[in-house]
Every structure is written in structure tokens, then in C-alpha cells.
Amino acid sequence: MTSYIKAHWDARARAKRQDPAASWEDVRGIDLEVATIAAALPPRARLLDVGCANGHATVRIARASGAAAVTGVDFSQEMIAAAQARLAAERPVSPFRFEVADARALPFGDAAFDAVYTTRMVINLPNWDEQAQAIGELFRVCRPGGRIILSEAFWEPLCRLNALRTVAGLRPLAEPDFNRYLRMPRLADLLAARGVEYRVIEFSGLYYLGTRFVRELVANADLDGFDTPLHGLFGDLEETFDAPGFGIQQAVVIDLPEGDAR
User: Fold this and answer.
1) Residue 200 half-sphere exposure toward CB, CA atoms < 13 A
2) Mean pLDDT of 195-215
3) In the chain, at which residue ranges do the beta strands (DSSP E only) sit?
4) Could you give the angle at the alpha carbon of 83 between the alpha carbons of 81 and 88, nearest 5°?
5) Reduced DSSP (H G I as helix, E B as strand, rest coil) percent helix, strand, coil of the chain, to 5
6) How far apart are CA 93 and CA 138, in angstroms?
7) Cα separation values, 242 from 47, 62, 109, 235, 239, Å
8) Which of 94, 166, 174, 222 is deepest in the core (most CB within 10 A)?
9) Rounded CA gap, 138 and 149, in Å?
10) pLDDT interval class at 261 (50, 70, 90)
11) 3-255 CATH choice from 3.60.15.10, 3.20.20.10, 3.40.50.150, 3.40.50.1580
């Protein structure tokens, strides 16, 4: 793992501890992500959250989906310490464990989980080869007939948003230094090679249009940051409506066949 990426998340964990914003400042975006993943998970599943950060979303997703047992892993010891402290404070009903692990070499046996998901984890790996390696590990540890959900950031919607921003005279958005957004054609080719069925849930298009485009056209200094009335407004609208093609955050839901597709 590139050292500066890990250093970034260690520092975030020390600064935020159990704050919902530890993994992303856009907590309304996290709400949309949590609801999407929870609704797509099978009930009473043995879940693995790869890239669980401080466990904020993990606990919420487990409760909403009715998970039978939950394991969360993260490569930041600082994040895992915060997640373990959360368990002590919240005492969730499902059996939980959090541990340090590398997504590229997960410390679990084959087919150990009914469902495996990521929340903006794959994009923290520094190149496509390592991202594909981590995705391969998700396939390995998920049982035949199970489900994998990749909730990740994608390059193509970023380009569409930036085209709008350029026309409006706004500076283009850029990937954070610690992220490498997924390219959908690469991912589609990888999944096609494995012969698996998948669908894409676009759960953030209208939200991104409102908070990364419309918001900056409104002349109001109080709209700085991620906690603004427009974030709340467009988050509420996104629960009913969407603008396909503009949501950088998307969920790719992969259903494994009953035979071995790993």
C-alpha cells in the first residue's frame, strides 16, 4: 500500500475517531450509500465490509439489512481501533468483529461470507492492477450464489460533471490525491471475463448535480463545505429521484452463480 494513502487515513482516524465523517466529509452522501447497500444485501447474511473505516456505516448497514454476523476490515489500525471502540459503546445485536487486513490478501478462507461489500475502498488502491487484485479477493471469499457490492467512485460521471462545470465557468473537480476512481469499461471487462451478472445502482446523480454544480452557482457564502441546506435538500430529493450519469458514487451489484465463478 502506498504509504501516503495509509498515512492519510491514519490521520483521519486520529482526528475524527468515531465521527461519521471519518471516511468522508459528505455525511449526507454516506446516508445515501448506506441505504443503497442495505437494500441490496440479502437478509440474515454473513457480511464482510472491506474498508470499514471506523465502523459507522458498517453498524448501520448491518442493522438495516438484518445481518446474521458481520466482519469489518480496514488497512488502518487507527480506524480499526475506533471501530472497536464503537462496538463497546453501541453494543449492536449481530455478532461483530473488526480487524486489520489488506484487501489484496484477505485473511479468510474461500467462500467464507454470504455477501461482501466495499464503500469507497477499491479507489484507495494506487493502480488498476491492485484494484483488480482486491476485487479478485472479494470473489474468493464470497460463497457461490452470494452477492458482492462495490460502492465506489467512477471516472466517467466525474467527466460529465466537469463538462457542465466548464460550460458554467467553474473549475473542474479532481480526484483526491489518495483516490484512483474506477473506469467502468475496465470493471465491465473484468466482470465479463468472470462470467457474472451485475447491475449498477445510480444512487447519487441528482445529489451530485445539486451539491457539485447547482450549489456553486448560488451566490451565498453560507453554502461552503458539505453541511449545507442544499446538501440536505438534494439528499432528500435523491431518495425519490435520480439524474443518471452524473453520480460519481455508484453501487455495482454482482450476483455470483451457484457454481464456482471465482
Assistant:
1) 17
2) 97
3) 46-50, 69-74, 96-100, 113-119, 142-153, 197-201, 249-255
4) 95
5) 45, 20, 35
6) 25
7) 28, 25, 39, 10, 8
8) 94
9) 9
10) very low
11) 3.40.50.150
Q: Which amino acid is at 216?
A: E
What would the pLDDT profile of 159-189 be if each residue is shown by its tens digit? Answer: 999 999 999 999 999 999 999 999 999 999 9
Q: Alpha helices, DSSP H only, in 91-183?
A: 128-141, 155-167
The sheet with strand 113-119 has its strands ordered as 96-100, 69-74, 46-50, 113-119, 142-153, 249-255, 197-201
What are phi and psi for residue 106, nearest 5 degrees?
-70, 140
- Cell 476490515: give the residue: 73
pLDDT surpasses 60 at 110: yes
Beta-carbon contacts of residue 108 (< 8 Å; ≥ 6 apart): 48, 71, 141
Place of cell 489500525: 77
Tracing cell 491514519 back to the chain, one arrives at 10
Contact, 209 vs 243, CB < 8 A? yes
Q: Give the length of the chain.
A: 262
Measured between alpha carbons, how far is residue 228 from residues 27, 217, 235 in Å?
A: 11, 14, 11
Q: Show Cβ contacts of residue 141 under 8 Å, excluding neighbours closer than 6 positions.
A: 48, 106, 108, 109, 110, 111, 112, 113, 116
pTM of the model: 0.95
pLDDT digits (tens, 9 = 90+) for 1-24: 568 888 999 999 999 999 999 999
| Closest-CA residue to 58 (of 34, 36, 41, 35) | 34
Phi, psi of 105 (to 5 degrees): -150, 75
